Amino acid sequence: MSRKGGRPPRLKLTLRSTAETIVRGGHPWVYSDSIKSQNREGEAGELAVVYDRKNKFLAMGFYDPDSPLRLRIFHVGKAVTIDPAWWKNRLGETLARRTSIADESMNGLRLINGESDGWPGLVMDRYAGTLVVKVYTPAWIGLLEMLIPIMVGMLEPERIVLRMSRNLQSWVAKEGGPGDGAILHGPPLDGVVVFLENGVRFESDPVKGQKTGFFLDQRENRKRVGELAEGADVLNAFSFSGGFSLYAARGGAKSVTDVDISEHALKAAARNFALNKEDLRVAACEHRMEQADAFQWIEDAPASSFDLVIVDPPSLAKREAERGRAIQAYGKLNANAIRLLREGGVLVAASCSAHVSEEEFYGAVRNAAQRSGRSFEEIETREHALDHDATFPEAQYLKCVYVRFE
């Protein structure tokens, strides 16, 4: 948003010594208590320059006075001119890292993964001809007018949809900016978009759906489930729109049971199965759906009912204070899931709770496995899909472990 009056001097910051070292090492976040001094009060979305203790240029980032995460760094090193050509070059570098992922069977993927790609507070997902840009910090609202033509020129999308975090929606509404779900380029979108993921058809709701309309980060785990599903009776707990289920069906599963508390999610799963009915294996798989609290359903279900159980709940720790309780919940949930496995069955346990570390989550699952009294073999652990690469600790939220039980 434009500022009133004359143009103020560039916002300049210096950091405390520890924070300076962390930023120099490539970490993209600076919290309010890490700022040692600044030449004036900054405005939301303003570009700020960081100088080191020797008064030399260190970094540039987006400033937000209303957030404890005061500065999001997008450039470290030598001073540069930040103009449209600079952003075009950055987009080209970012897209180049995806060239090995996208092909004729894959037109649903993440093109920009926020801080890990040098775009702090912005992600961009592709669903066929629709791009969805989701922003989490005010700076991007003012930059969109410049960035959209660059994105259109390089990617030639049918349309571009804007999504915003809840906090940012409130800020933009006060400033008179575009609303969540606004079409920034191209024709209006009436309904869903159908895209391909490893040849599987899925629907996405870019305007009203969760996140950007679909959960692309589990792509590699969905593929692995398909490889394990031959002849299996499969349970997909917290199934959402049936992503794991469809891969299991395509992989030759005998049956798939979706359990989710949301009727809307289960209807989306049914539509996704219908989109793939021409696949003979999908058509042959019995698809059951149960609208229920998945935690309780797993606890009440008969023992030894399934050959493959996928447990992928929503985040159980949205803040640090919830971490301990979440670890206990993961332990109980997966202990109940193990009970449902037949001899030789496989548990696929996932967590998207950033506040729960890999060690804590895997420890909870392993403890549950040990307490079951059954012999087990840990097959592998996995993290984010390649287009969701995490380059700093706070971005490493997704964990998934595969365990076979005798």
Brief rundown of the structure:
The protein is 30% helix and 29% strand. By secondary structure, the chain is α/β, with parallel strands linked by helices.
Helix content: 25-40%
CATH class of the largest domain: Alpha Beta
Spatial strand order of the main sheet = 16-15-14-17-18-20-19
CATH architecture classification of the largest domain: 3-Layer(aba) Sandwich
End-to-end distance? 61 Å
Stretches where pLDDT is under 50 for at least 5 consecutive residues are: none
Overall spatial form: globular
The fourth-level CATH homologous superfamily of the largest domain is Vaccinia Virus protein VP39
Mean pLDDT: 96
Counted by DSSP, the helix tally is 11
Task: Explain what this protein looks like in three dimensions.
This protein is of the alpha/beta class. It has three domains: 11-76, PUA domain (Archaeosine Trna-guanine Transglycosylase, Chain: A, domain 4, Roll), CATH 2.30.130; 84-194, RNA methyltransferase domain (HRMD) like (Transcription Regulator spoIIAA, 2-Layer Sandwich), CATH 3.30.750; 215-405, Vaccinia Virus protein VP39 (Rossmann fold), CATH 3.40.50. The chain is built from eleven helices and 20 strands. It has a seven-stranded mixed sheet with strand order 16-15-14-17-18-20-19, with helices on both faces. It has a six-stranded mixed sheet with strand order 2-6-5-4-1-3. The chain has a five-stranded mixed sheet with strand order 7-8-9-10-11. A hairpin with a 2-residue loop joins β12 (193-197) and β13 (200-204). α2 packs across α3 (139-155), α5 runs parallel beside α6 and α10 runs parallel beside α11 (358-371). The longest helix has 17 residues, at 139-155. The protein is globular and about 70 Å long. The mean pLDDT is 96.
